[in-house]
Amino acid sequence: AGILLTGLLPKIISPQLALAGIGAYLAWVALDITVFSALQPEDRAAAAGLSVFSLIGGGLVGLLLISAVSALINSSTGYVIAFAAASLPVLLFWRRSKKLIRAAGPDLDARLGVDEDSQSFDEGVSESGQAPILSARNVDFAYGSVQVLFDVSMRVNEGEMVALLGPNGVGKTTLLRVLSGLEKPQGGVVRLAGENVTDLGASRRVTLGLSQIVGGNAVFGSMTVYENLTMYGFSLGRDRASVKAGIEEAFEIFPKIADRRNQLGSTLSGGEQQMLGLSKALITKPKVLVVDEFSLGLAPIVVGELLGMVRELNSRGTAILVVEQSVNVALNLVDRCYFMEKGEIVYEGLSKDLLAQPDLVQTLSLGGVPEKDSPAGPGNDLSTTKADADSKGNYIS
Questions:
Q1: How far apart are CA 337 and CA 356, in angstroms?
Q2: What is the pLDDT of residue 380?
Q3: b/e 322-339 (16+ beta carbons within 10 angstroms → b)
Q4: CB of 187 within 8 A of CB of 40?
Q5: Minimum mean pLDDT among 16-25, 196-205, 251-260: which range?
Q6: Rounded mean pLDDT of the chain?
Q7: Separation between Cα atoms, residue 279 and residue 257, nearest integer Å
Q8: Minimal CA–CA distance to 134: which of 345, 290, 14?
Q9: How many CA atoms lie within 13 A of 68 on its CB side?
Q10: 327-384 pLDDT, tens per residue?
């Protein structure tokens, strides 16, 4: 980019340097969008430094080459010769790169999960015959040498409400971070709206329709309620008209938030802050809303109001995935649920079936694992023992 841009300018050093820098920056942005999100987090800093150095270096080399050749011959002819000389290695490199990409195609497809087996998993599980709006298949994740998630598979169908349950420390929040793109799994596939997003970062997943509300951390305290909603919409690239319409819709549906539109976020109660966080979904209108611990530390009457908000969002077409400590709250809200234990899914079933089996609910809530002959819900064959988890290596206890 630097060579091309400097080759098109007159022989004026300052504009050439400036435009070479602009070209390098634009090329770096393109690399960031297409390449960096596919790298492991620990490799991104080195790749960014190398790309910036190479791009700026290319612009400066192009500048020196053009200046030298044009000084030896004449201005117009020199630019033509310099441009041709600089283009030759670029074309050769491009041809070589295409060969390498073709050769690496099968391995890359395997890494990204683009295979018939993974396609059939996602397309076959929905009762409606459609692919789930959000799914994870055979996901493994570790913090350093400590493995947290073991071969996790789960799904959220379009328009469905699903809960992820289990005691503290079993990997629920880590799984949410993997689904939302904040962490990258060591193995497995994550799909969103039918697309493989395993190697995409959180910002790209937001544009594809996933939004996450984290309990107690959804509000900027120094901003008013109205400013929080406005800033959130603009930060996601929404235009002024759509942001305004979303805020008006939020105020209409949730009058308690409207009454506090000019109140600072830091002065809101815990329940009101959660309401404000949920209201943001009316601006972005995500396909999937992930809610982490929305009832934590709140009074039952406030939790009841929040449940009404979640149901309202779901009735407007947004699928909901909830991580919740209160099993009773979750089972009375969602259609299906998953229980996790030591980084694994040990139970999948319908909420109405679990509500009819209080003993099983108590076992799962305390971190127990149902026996293989236990009525653990439709299609559940995920029973696991502690020995099975131990045999896989480290786990979260």
A1: 14
A2: 42
A3: bbbbbbebbbebbbbbbb
A4: no
A5: 16-25
A6: 72
A7: 8
A8: 290
A9: 9
A10: 888 888 899 999 988 899 988 889 888 888 877 777 777 666 665 544 444 334 333 3
* Number of neighbouring beta carbons within 10 Å of residue 105: 11
- Per-residue b/e over 367-378, b at no fewer than 16 CB within 10 Å? bebbeeebebbe
d(CA 222, CA 203): 24
* Domain(s) of CATH 3.40.50.300: residues in the chain: 120-391
* Residues whose CB is less than 8 angstroms from the CB of residue 332 and which lie 6 or more positions away in sequence, other chains included: 307, 351, 355
CB–CB of 362/165 below 8 Å?
no
Angle at 84 between CA 81 and CA 90, to 5 degrees: 145
pLDDT recorded at residue 3: 47
Fold of 120-391: Rossmann fold (3.40.50)
Cα(320)–Cα(142) distance, rounded to whole angstroms?
26
The pLDDT tens digits of the residues spanning 108-164 come to 444 444 444 444 444 444 555 567 899 999 999 999 889 999 999 999 999 899 999
- The tokens describing 292, both together, are 């982490």
pLDDT of residue 57: 63
Q: For residues 48 and 38, is the Cβ–Cβ distance under 8 A? A: no
Q: CB-hemisphere CA count at 13 Å for 101?
A: 6
Give backbone dihedrals phi and psi of 345, rounded to 5 degrees, phi first. Answer: -85, 120
Q: Which two tokens stand for residue 87?
A: 């283009």
Q: Which two tokens stand for residue 75?
A: 């201005």
